[in-house]
Amino acid sequence: xxxxxxxxxxxxxLNHGSFGAMPKAIIEKQHxxxxxxxxxxxxxxxxxxxxxxxxxRRKLASLVGASPEDLVFVPxxxxxxxxxxxxxxxxxxxxxLVTDHIYNACxxxxxxxxxxxxxxxxxxHVPFPLQSEEEVIDAVLGALTExxxxxxxxxxxxxxxVIFPVxxxxxxxxxxxxxxxxxxxxAPGMIPLDLHKLGVAYYTGNCHKWLCAPKxxxxxxxxxxxxxxxxxxxxxxxxxSTRTDKSFLHLEFDWTGTDDYTPYILVGDCIDFLGSLYPGxxxxxxxxxxxxxxxxxDLLCEAFECExxxxxxxxxxxxxxxxxxxxEPIKAPSGxxxxxxxxxxxxxYRIEVPIVSWPQAGRRLVRVSAQxxxxxxxxxxxxxxxxxxxxxRV
Length: 394
Hints:
The protein is an alpha/beta fold. The chain has helices at 16-19, 24-39, 41-64, 77-87, 104-117, 133-142, 166-174, 195-198, 248-254, 262-265, 267-275, 281-304, 340-349, 376-391; strands at 12-13, 71-74, 95-99, 120-124, 148-154, 179-184, 202-206, 218-222, 318-319, 324-325, 330-331, 337-338, 351-352, 355-358, 363-366, 368-369. It has a seven-stranded mixed beta sheet, with helices on both faces. Strands 10-15-14 form a three-stranded antiparallel beta sheet, with no helix packed on it. A two-stranded parallel sheet has the order 1-13. It starts with 11 loop residues before the first strand and ends with a helix.
């Protein structure tokens, strides 16, 4: 299915997880939509935008198991996390609990809010590789204190590509009166979601990754009992609107100023597109990508005789086997630290794949993604390339 995407044919692209990739059909739809907007911008913003956003939101809500009234669009999951953290009232001594698998940007957001309010960020150590979900649950519960106000946890971790058991964790924390904010950046389009069943207070996800939507499309789910306290990072016209045909939540978040809203509008089209690829719809696509990610993990672990990262049920459409020993990064002229193996894969083999240093395990992880355009031969080529690169050091 690679012909359906605009990817460079000279590359083996194994990094859908970082920024996604838009299908050609969606690129064309966005182009045509932008042309339509510019043919009469006032008409679009004043007469068309609301219904276009609502239609897209309805399809997204159906996919993620939420009511449209519980969802607002945000540019990305990092914005969603910042929005919630900035809206909550932390007091000196309050604790925000995270894990050491947290996405760096979201960790920075938590630290920033803690410094401003006198709160404290507490980090739970989750082992890796993992043997079971219980290791994650025990790590989180073991780091709780009487001062824990919020748990900020990933659904699918970015560096280690593990699905955390957030539903089980949320159930445990509900009995303790502790709210959960889930960074689900990778989850929409990768794994089935039912946000109502999940039971968390807040959930944010990206649509540009596994839903293949335009960059700048994400969502924030806010449980009904938490809506009054959450405000957008940009306060605009909705704050004092007298309209009664929309909720205050949507009035505030749907319009934060003149912007390009086409990424939000096209989320529904992306769901339709992905659902058309297989007879079983997007569910079959997610299962297909999971099987391919597991097969890629098995191939790489066998080729390099390494321990698997976690049980297969804790993988979605990515896997990050700990294949390589730790190594000091090289410095580019710009001062940026670069991984030698990653650069050789890119320059000499035209393979795009992230390599993550994970000192806790004493290894570097090779994080592979599996999307509809990937096949097992892609990972076989990666394994051959890695063997050749590593053999050059002997």
